[in-house]
Specification:
2 copies of one chain form a homodimer. Chain A contains 14 helices and 18 strands. Chain A has about 425 residues and is an alpha/beta fold. In chain A, strand 4, helix 4 and strand 5 form a beta-alpha-beta unit. Chain A is elongated, with a radius of gyration of 23 Å. Chains A, B: InterPro entries: Asp/hSer_DH_NAD-bd, HDH_cat, HDH_CS, NAD(P)-bd_dom_sf. Chains A, B: One of its GO terms (biological process) is methionine biosynthetic process. Chains A, B: Pathway: Amino-acid biosynthesis; L-methionine biosynthesis via de novo pathway; L-homoserine from L-aspartate: step 3/3; Amino-acid biosynthesis; L-threonine biosynthesis; L-threonine from L-aspartate: step 3/5.
């Protein structure tokens, strides 16, 4: 079976190296298959940027989709262009053309999850998307396995390499968000427009894919409460550290009865905890099932080789099952569940506000007191730090968002219990 | 396909509940299969202890192996008796009789790994053993998956729930080994004879299974350097804690060129690390591949439900592939590798010795100085604590074992870097 690759970016070239250039043990697996069928190889690469250096190792570059869609010899398409509309159209057309699809595109999968799965089933092909969540961490496959026996009721994790790099670096250096973002951008760990990462859209998409699978109901990106990390300052890192905590960017969803609760927000973990010690581009994902209890999966959430590894794992999976036409049971995504925000989350809250004057201090303390008992208050130069008693996330978030209208320089985060 | 269960102990009853009593989502999977074949069920249970309360839910109890071996309706046998000789014989006979086998028995698998895999292949059946390592952690399957693409070069982890419970409890309470072992025994977390757990045989067997698979060469239990945790005292916990470390019981193997290095020993990890925060009966297993980098898997290393989950996962796997007779590529275990002890491991060492007199202090310090520079020495009542510069594990271990002949009250551990 021939393979087409859409997009020859970082991950695309990594996949090409594994499949066509025999890096890793991949070729060994194929040698074993040769006796049964022709050895699979990437025969066409769709890359619209013809100015890009593609090396002399790349086979046939094509620039028009029809050269892939209408090529009967291509049975599997690896979609790694990124972006939204064009990749979505291509995946759809490939499935319709009876071609298996492997993608790493979390935006497309989270947005069109049910439609694409249905399309794959209708056309008797397989859609795989292991690399769309957690980079090289084998979470999609593992979640499916555990779901054969378990009812999964909770998913949480550090799901974005860029923001985890930024927060780890800020913690290590005691640095501010702005300068650390600039550093991350300069070394290619953050994009020129970092919004999707630092405002939580990327985490939210990954959380929506995992939660939809686990709870068997479409949890849309829009259903997820999101708060970014752009307000974290060196002063927060210092105070949080002195309290024995570390700030992490957490995606978290819980299924209780027929209700799904989801959140993407900065959360403080005890220094001595597993979450606090997941650093740099590493990710961790925790799933909880009624039989297995909690399982956690840790690995590289980004990077060429690790992500290519996940993509090629999907390719091998498809090549292996194609022969028998023994396709896995399709995911069920039609359970009726209520998506009701962050009601279930609660904890102590940390808040830092920059003060213009004495009056502003009163404003902050009064606002906090309307929702929670203050446990600790530290006033230091022109800043106030508050730690509250345990309260509902909803209540604190609402109060803090309102407070921001009059006290703009503010950061707050729940302390994980 | 009918299933027989060997042994109705803790895990056995957990498996019975999942398969026959429809606990969890397992029955849902079976409903889906019913259209294609008869729904699988445990029809016979071999349990030689007839005084045991088996409940009125258990189907047919049999006491003689032939009732299972000669029953043509039984296609799959779940071997959960524990122990060595009888379970080994039963697994062998079942494979020879053309029955698939699922087991959790790490002793049998690590001792007869190659023989049993060969026997399965020769008889056209499948042998699965996910629950033999890491309880509910899906490590065997994940390792096999990653090996399709990666050369795995390192495995390390906290692989024993009993000793991790004991060390976690000692750390939490500042308690001694003896009293904590007694506590663990009283609540069923340690066996009456705890030797296999606290002297490292259990970890060594699990490490030998994972290492044999990963390095494609039989690593025998006997090839693994082992040192127990029985010498840890409350005084060590206190000193190690004040230094910012936590003691953990680590199994670790590395493949470098054609050499395999293995060790099972107490190791000190920084308080702020992932390993230090794996507590109680939880286990963690790290594997490193040349493409994927490091992956870590965390979950319950023991317990009825989690282990039964892993066993039933194997059962589902076999039921799924049996129809197509599309058996996975057999493991290769015949690479020629040198098993050369602990030569590759190095680090600073912590040592505590109880002193009878001033002369003994000189003995200890002189002995340490023969192999390493002393970095820190604390003498406190009748104890000395030493932290060394970085040295080879072999050198320190040899020195310390010799020192124990004259200074019997001694504990030492490498500081993980």
């Amino acid at each position: 079976m021939n393979i087409a690759l859409l997009g020859f970016g970082t991950i695309g070239s990594g996949v090409y190296e594994l499949i066509n250039l025999n890096k890793g043990k991949f070729s060994g697996n194929f040698t074993d298959m040769e006796s049964r069928k022709a050895s699979p190889v990437i025969t066409k690469v769709l890359e619209r940027d013809t100015t890009k250096d593609l090396g002399d190792t790349v086979g046939k570059i094509v620039t028009h989709p029809s050269e892939i869609l209408e090529d009967e010899s291509i049975g599997l398409v690896i979609a790694l262009m990124g972006g939204m509309d064009f990749e979505y159209e291509m995946i759809k057309e490939c499935l319709k053309a009876g071609k298996h699809v492997v993608t790493a595109n979390k935006a497309v999968i989270s947005e069109y999850f049910e439609e694409l799965l249905t399309l794959a089933e209708e056309n008797g092909v397989v859609l795989r998307y292991e690399a769309s969540v957690g980079g090289g961490i084998p979470i999609i496959g593992s979640l499916k396995e555990e779901m054969k026996i378990n009812r999964v009721t909770e998913i949480k994790g550090i799901l974005n390499g860029t923001t985890n790099f930024i927060l780890s670096k800020m913690t290590e250096e005691g640095a501010d968000f702005g300068e650390t973002l600039a550093l991350a951008q300069s070394i290619g760990f953050a994009e020129a427009d970092p919004t999707a990462d630092v405002e939580g859209y990327d985490v939210s998409r990954k959380l929506s894919i995992l939660s939809s699978m686990a709870y068997e109901s479409i949890i849309r990106d829009e259903d997820v409460y999101k708060r970014g990390i752009t307000d974290v300052r060196a002063a927060d890192i210092e105070m949080i550290g002195s309290m024995g905590y570390v700030v992490k960017y957490l995606g978290h969803s819980i299924l209780e009865h027929k209700n799904v609760y989801t959140t993407v927000e900065p959360v403080l973990f005890k220094e001595a905890s597993i979450m606090s010690n997941v650093n740099s581009e590493f990710n961790i994902i925790s799933i909880t099932g009624d039989i297995i209890g909690e399982l956690q999966f840790y690995g590289k959430g980004a990077g060429k080789d690790a992500t290519a590894n996940a993509v090629v794992g999907d390719v091998l999976y498809i090549l292996n099952i194609v022969k028998e036409q023994n396709y896995p049971k399709p995911l069920r995504l039609n359970r009726k569940l209520n998506k009701i925000g962050t009601d279930i989350f609660k904890g102590k809250y940390y808040l830092r506000a920059n003060l213009d004057d004495k009056e502003m201090l009163d404003t902050v303390l009064t606002a906090v007191e309307t929702v929670a008992a203050r446990k600790t208050v530290i006033v230091n130069d022109n800043q106030v730090y508050v730690v509250t008693s345990v309260i509902a996330a909803n209540d604190f978030n609402t109060m803090a968002e309102k407070l921001k209208e009059t006290v703009p320089e503010l950061f707050y985060a729940r302390i994980y219990e």
